[in-house]
UniProtKB/TrEMBL annotation:
One GO CC term, this protein: cytosol
Binding site for Fe cation 1: 74, 105, 108, 187
Name of the protein this chain belongs to: Putative acyl-[acyl-carrier protein] desaturase
Native species: Mycolicibacter senuensis
Pfam families linked to this entry: FA_desaturase_2
Entries under CDD domains matching the protein: Acyl_ACP_Desat
Keywords noted in UniProt: Fatty acid biosynthesis, Fatty acid metabolism, Iron, Lipid biosynthesis, Lipid metabolism, Metal-binding, Oxidoreductase
Domain of life: Bacteria
Length: 305
């Protein structure tokens, strides 16, 4: 980490403390086991019951794919903890946040796995095999600077919130909808924390912050993209309108950029101005591509009608 990045983390620390205190007041503790319909559970063959068969699942293929992707993404928490602890450190307010965030995130995989296993929503053997494979591979964001990491998680936490919330609505199960709405609340509070810090970074180091935002807008990918079968499942999820390019553009990237007033701020040097222009050009291209996909989908619907 460069001296500039280290100095910036130090300068942001009072703002980290302020936002940590705000977060602790806003966050309402919850218990994962409260969101699991335990009365629907029964033993598997190992304990004298019956192993899972496809007919056990009450979920349609889209809900299965979305819940699987969401859960396996949450399963990589050890890697995510390493990523933010490495970037932000384990001392002071930064360290307190890293611990708080990790503990809160840990509830998500607990609750989702318990729900899916108890309701026999997806094959638990396949789920465990995929968890092992995905977690062993881990997640590595590369050599992101702390500013790039802040920009990335600002978008990623909101993307995860939207994905969880839309998955719950599409699941067809009121319990899953309730559980995923609760998980989405956590993700939203996490997004607000990171978004506020990046907003402060834009005031402190505008050019460096804008370049970091540019890097993460143009290079964004979900943390679970390397999991087995991600592309196939992502296509199902996109076609179902749970998370697609239009949602990413309209409901994730644009709201965060508006909060930061990216296109209204003054005080950028040549690097910051160039980064802002690159963001603007990229978003126009994404919007055009999303519109193209929407038109193709409408054409397919009209043919099949």
């Amino acid at each position: 980490m460069t001296n500039v990045q280290t100095a910036l983390l130090h300068e942001l620390e009072p703002i980290v403390e302020q936002n940590l205190n705000r977060h602790l007041k806003a966050a309402k503790p919850w218990l994962p086991h409260d969101y699991v319909p335990w009365s629907k559970g029964r033993d598997f063959a190992f304990l004298g019951g019956e192993d899972w068969v496809p007919e056990d699942s009450p979920l349609d293929p889209v809900a299965k794919a979305a819940l699987l992707v969401n859960l396996l993404t949450e399963d990589n928490l050890p890697s995510y903890h390493r990523e933010i602890a490495t970037r932000f450190g384990r001392d002071g307010a930064w360290g307190s946040w890293v611990g708080q965030w990790t503990a809160e995130e840990g509830r998500h995989s607990i609750a989702l796995r318990d729900y899916l296993v108890v309701t026999r929503g997806i094959d638990p053997v396949n789920l465990e095999n995929m968890r092992m494979q995905h977690t062993i591979a881990g997640y590595d964001s590369g050599d992101k600077t702390p500013l790039q990491a802040l920009a990335y998680v600002s978008f990623q936490e909101l993307a995860t919130r939207v994905s969880h919330r839309n998955t719950g609505k599409a699941s067809g199960c009121p319990i899953a909808d309730q559980l995923l709405a609760r998980v989405a609340l956590d993700e939203n509070l996490h997004m607000v924390f990171y978004r506020n810090l990046m907003d402060a970074a834009l005031d402190i180091a505008p050019d460096e912050a804008m370049c970091a935002i540019r890097d993460e807008v143009l290079g964004f990918s979900m943390p679970g993209m390397n999991m087995p079968g991600f592309q196939e499942n992502a296509l199902l999820i996109a076609k179902a309108g749970i998370y697609d390019l239009r949602i990413h553009h309209d409901d994730v990237v644009q709201p965060v950029l508006r909060f930061w007033k990216v296109f209204e701020r003054d005080g950028f040097g040549p690097d910051g101005e160039q980064a802002r222009e690159q963001i603007d050009g990229f978003l126009k291209m994404v919007d055009e591509r999303a519109t193209h996909y929407e038109e193709k989908a409408k054409a397919r619907e009209s043919v099949s009608a």
